[in-house]
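Here comes an entry:

___
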Amino acid sequence: PFIKDAMDMKTRDLGLNLAKGSYVHFLPNVAGFVGADHVAMLLASGIAQSDGTALAIDIGTNTEISLLTGSKIACVSCASGPAFEGGHIKHGMKAAAGAIDRLQLSDNAVQYHTIGGAPPSGLCGSAVIDAVSQLYQSGVLDNGGKMKDHPSAQVKNGQREYLIAPKGESGARYDITLTQRDVREVQLAKAAVRTGIEVLLHTKGIAVKNIEQIVVAGAFGSYLDIQNAIGIGMLPSLPLERFGQIGNAAGTGARMALISKSKRLEAQELARHIQYIELSTAPGFDKIYTGATRIE
């Protein structure tokens, strides 16, 4: 980044018509793809003040991950793509009214929940993760992500897809499905996140079992079923009580910095202690990433 330090600018210089003499405060950056939003998330989570070993993960199209060991913080940036927000998914959509946000397979029947109780319109990212995990557990997907023959899996336009909500059910206007291509998109996205975690642990010589706390942030992280994320290998297989979901912590951190000078100073101190690791140049990156695409 051109500027890494925190910065104050007069609102009038930015074309903002606010209180006379007021300023805009910019929290510090860490690296090109680890910006002030991640610093704000760490600030809001309070995780830097905790003892022991912890992971802070802000999941999105670009996922930032920090590994905290005592007073030391190391971070990576993962290009996880838009699948977690419904992008590049045939019937994907953002977490809005009518989006299927949770689903479960029971005796080959799909049970799902939609946001706002509205008729199903598509799948948001959390439901896509649920679907892949549930299909794997049910034997419809193998650990390479290939969709097998199944009564609910049909072939359309040369690719297999699994029926989630048939047209007419609960007011659905069309068949909502998960396709083989959708599964591949999820594999790439979840592999990026898991690779970031593994590179951080390998770089710092820490075993997965020694992670005492994992904080998951971001709008998508609020809806994520941790058990299903573990089920596809996106998150480490650890006891559920070690995980916490804190929603839009970046927004909370920004509000904290807005009203507190001491929190601004704390954010600057946090950023100074963060070691950025370039993911693509990490030893063994290709091998780790390829292995992380598997569902297991």
